[in-house]
Amino acid sequence: MEYVVFSALVIAFIVFIFIMGMLDERRAKKKFREKLEKDYGKPSDKQYMDGRLSTISGYYKKTMGETDFFIDDITWNDLDMDRLYQAMDYTFSAAGEEVLYKTLRCPCMEEIPLKEREEKINYFRENKEKRINVQLLFASIGRTGKYSIVDYIDYLDNLEEEKLAKHVIILIAIAASLGGMFLNPALGLTAFCALLATNIMLYFPSQKRIAPYLTTFAYLLRVIKAIEKLDKCNVPVFEKEMEELKRLKKATKAFAKGSFLVFGDKAVKSNPFEILLDYIKMCFHIDILKFYSMLKEAKNHKQDFLAMFEIIGSMEVVISIGAYRESLSYYCLPRFSGKLYVEGEELYHPLIAEPVVNSFREDKGMLLTGSNASGKSTFLKTVAVNVILAQTIYTCMAKTFTCSIFRVYSSMSLKDDLAAGDSYFIVEIKALKRILNAVKEEGAPVLCFVDEVLRGTNTVERIAASTEILESLLGESSMCFAATHDIELTRLLEGSYHNFHFEETILKDDVKFNYKLKQGRATTRNAIKLLGILQYEKQIIKKAEKRAENFVNTGKWI
């Protein structure tokens, strides 16, 4: 009777733990659903593990050769696109993260894909319940950890298939020992125990060998499971994608079949039956044998899994774009023109908290002048970012925005390359040369942004070379927006570039910038006056003003 009571208590405890695990899962899911509803359109507060940002580019790097054009590293860094990526990253899966990154690095070279994406963006903005249900599925897929999923998949090639004969022979011997118990119980039982002990000792080295690869398998299985649930969600705008996903799922059926032998059923936390399965694995190596079967299938279907990854990620990207739009003060859908020009009404930069808006239309080339901190670089970045976003997420931070389909390049926030031993000037001329090469190549028109061209060399050679370079950056299929402190360029390039400037107001002990774009070249020189605000000696300021005035009048330095 005591044994019965004890057994009943153990069973009751196991059932209690199981039920509590289920309830915890439900509560967590409900709380997460509420967060998805409440936080939609709020600024993204997503946290990234150390090093994650450097690996999010993995899928882009793997597939960048398949695209017509991509934003190169110089332009990406010049425009601080990592920060912009983080601002619009509302994804919950590694697929979503990495495909969103690829989306921003690979602008569309035609409008049709952008309009197709727009239909899907609007669907989820208008169907809240569908959006939340799909986001829950993406969250169930989750992230991969430290590395990109494509790195994990490629990593599988490093594992050679283990010779499984020893595992199979011992299993046969165990089966034989069980049969031997009927002929000689003592001998059969002794052999059975000895073989189990041997198998347990052999298990841990084999299990340690495969452990690093289980992360990859687990992620792929979560993707496959999510495909089943996505199909039940019935999202009409993804009809074509779902057909392809189902085909890919069928192609990888052998990989998923019997995978519980490796992973068990982790659907519910604190599942007591997992403990029993772990002991069975140690004794009979069923997970080791199944793992190598799955490894073979994974290697054979790498492209299928990458295709799944692309489609799943693309589905989550449209939700992320919709959420990002909701976080903006205002935005517009871009219009694309066959003519070579860029036009924006009340354009602003999305990373500036309280931006000053500007309107302009340029069909030739823009040369910006003005003092430091007056707004030249920010304006260049604002135009460049909006052109890229027009061709990636079909969203511009403006009342209206029109442009051509462009290949965008920049040469702005450059630094010495200590690793390569290149000075600033060498780095700069290399950056400019790549743009000049792009202008000569076939493809969409080039739109380039240059801040302080050739600032790394002397005045005479800078002005002479800058004039020729900036002339070469204009053409029937290229435009350039450039900023400079060299007022001489505004006259030398007057026939090629339209002059615009930013200006500031010097007060008694302060300087005020209004960051408004104005036509024409800068007419004021306030750098020396700024020295006075910072309390430089009056004699230094007076002599500097006299030298500058003499140069303006005579063209010579005294």
Write a structural description.
This protein is an alpha/beta fold. Helices cover 58% and strands 9% of the residues. The strands form three sheets. The chain has a six-stranded mixed sheet, with helices on both faces. α8 packs antiparallel against α12 and α13 runs antiparallel to α18. The chain is elongated and about 115 Å long. About 1% of the residues have low confidence.
List the helices and strands and how they pair.
Elements lengths: L1 H38 L12 H4 L2 H6 L9 H6 L2 H7 L6 H12 L6 H15 L1 H14 L7 H7 L9 H19 L1 H26 L3 H20 L5 H13 L1 H4 L3 H4 L9 H12 L1 H15 L1 H26 L7 E2 L5 E6 L10 E5 L3 E4 L6 H15 L9 E4 L3 E5 L12 H17 L5 E6 L7 H14 L5 E6 L3 H6 L5 E4 L2 E3 L4 E3 L4 E2 L7 H7 L4 H17 L4
Parallel strand pairs: 1-5, 4-8, 4-9, 6-7, 7-8
Antiparallel strand pairs: 2-3, 2-5, 9-12, 10-11
